[in-house]
Amino acid sequence: MAGPLLERLQRFLLPWWLAALLLLVANGVALWVIATRIEFNNAPELYFPPDAPATLLEKSLRKEFPEDESVVAVFQGDDLFTPAFLRQQHAVAERLARHPLVDRVFAVTTVDHIAASEDGFTVERLVDPGKLDHLTPQELRRRVLDDRFAPGLLVAKDGSALAIVIRPKPLTESRQRQALETAVHEAVKAAGLRDHLVAVAGTVPLDAAELRSMLVDTTALLPIVMGLSLLLLYWVVGRVAPVVIGAVTMMTTMSTTLAMAAYLGKPYTLVTAMVPPLLAAYSTTALIHFYAALARARERGMRRPQRVLWARREIHVASLFNVLTTVAGIASLYFTSIPPIQNYAMIGGVGVGVIYLVVFHLAPPLLVRFDRGRWPTRKTVLSVTDKIAFKIAQFSMRRAGWVVAGLSILVVAAIPLVLKVTPESDLFKFFPAHHPLTISTRIAEDKLSGVIGLEVVFDAPQRDGFKRVAVLKRLKDFQTWLDKQPEVDRTFSMVDLVEEMNWAFHGEDPAFRRLPDTDRALSQLLLIYDGRDLDELTNREFRRTRIAMNLNVHGAVAIGAVIERIRGELERRKLDDLRWDIGGWGRLFADQNALLLSGQVNSFLFAFLTIFLLLALAFRSWRGGLIALIPNLAPLFFIFAIMGLLGMHLDMATVLIAGELLGITVDDTIHLYHGYQRRLEQGLDHTWAVARSFEASGRAVLAVSVLLTAQFLLLTGSQFQPTVDFGLMSATGLIAGQFFELVLLPALLVLWYQHQQNRLRREWARRHPRLAARQGKRP
């Protein structure tokens, strides 16, 4: 199967000192690059494709209107409307307003209030911080609650909470959001209001919480995963030197791969954080198969270096195709048009290639030099797993028909569960119920409004298009419809400001809290107005305006449903002279969810076709490739059935599992099927070829299953739910993969062999009918 060049590579070993020097230099350079260039950044902007319609609209909107991100700080207490508390809260607002990352701070002492005046109306502070002693707490409370815009934004409708809303300048990094969140807590502490602060919510604290989770998982959880991997590796091989070399392999793979990503300017995101566990798992897989071959070489009485050379030659071809299939599985995720997932595909694929180079070209010279003495024959996993694998394969071969039939029935029965799996992301459910962010979000939405922003943008055909009363009335009708939607907590538009101007201009007469009657009157009101809010709702040419809203739903599916309902309503209204679109953070998030589904389908098709072609090439048979692929599709089906049963969805983490599992589990199949083919070529009977292959390679398959399952289960210790789901489903999928490889693969091989034998008998009977008739008459 291997060509002359491959044969020479299999026999060639570097000098041990050169291999050690290469490993030392690679790790040194990699660690230096990581220390100086790695960027820990999980900013939401990184997850949006730069050429997506929603992204392009967002860029256009932010050139004219402010950001829709925010930090909401909620305060509770019995003294909220006393002059002392309001002065302290105003001190917090003033301090934050001076922060370099802050664009504007909204508090009852900083926001505009439109009021009547002798010559029309004036724009003043809702609560003047310089006149707090002129009003009683009851009067202050009534003034705030009677304002048109403060309830639901800055004060609970029942007066039980006050809030400060901080709107940042355009942010591009998670550390900026973390710094802003820290500044909020510091300002509150400096003002002496820490005991009153009950919640800090919004999209900015969300990103900061994700960054903290990512750093904790990387600095604490990952070393534990590696440590356990090495302990389990020792449990498997019972030798110190191979374990130390395994540690060097893992370290080299992860450091060089992450250094490459850092050098290319790829940020380290929550998705990228899944790469080190993947590389640790695949490094373990490659090492176990290599060490299992070394154990077989020792059993044959081989010594160094022949033992190492023989082991490498024994599994080199299969391992080479392992690398190719795993890279294909991981690289298939590049078809998901979400940049961090594409980065995962690229970084993970390169990392697997590095594993191949280290395990099969740099580790062998070290094994020859430092792995002295005998390998133990007892009390290791490898000494017992071969017998277990043989027993399982023997059972499957004897009951091949029943095994395939039974598993087929299970597959059919699980189809309804698989169909229940849909793409869904709810960022505020990514943390457990007791997490501070979850608690803060619940308090903020109970007392104020939803934290998810959405906006409908309108463009008029000409300048001053929104200085016409008839046009604003159409916007008013639509905004009234929006206010009736159960998912919409609050809306805000230039119509609200104009109505408030008209009300104040007419001496605060409730009958005039509406749009003016003429375009001239409208122009007059707009000319008098000198506040800041109007500029944030319409551009200077009055050709573009927006209706901003707060949603009380977080899930991408629910947000998408709201968007589709809004689209349908706008199309029904037939605003022919106005162009409209829907933007904001909610639109970006909902569109991202659709990309997950299309990306999952495309990546699976690519992985399926590519891996099938590689298997067919490896086994020189289309039928062999198909037989080897079926046991690896079964665990994917099983995983989606479990997800459907548990109500889990496709999200940023679980979307990675299919390509990863297909790439990893097929590796063991290649070793098993390759051993089966080689034994057939050596002249063994079909039954013995299957049995001996599973006895020899099966020991590594079971050992790999134990190791990888333990590694991925450790990820369930994360505080970030997608990481927990990724670890749990990966471990479950690996267990299922090993089960199907040891149970389904030998059954399929037996049934295929029986099919071939029956076909040959029918062909022989067709060519020799008389002989066949005579044999048929024998008793």
From TrEMBL:
Keywords: Cell membrane, Membrane, Transmembrane, Transmembrane helix. InterPro entries: MMPL_dom, Mycobact_MmpL, SSD. The keyword Transferase does not apply. It is a multi-pass membrane protein. Residues 592-751 form the SSD domain. Belongs to the resistance-nodulation-cell division (RND) (TC 2.A.6) family. MmpL subfamily. This is MMPL family transporter.
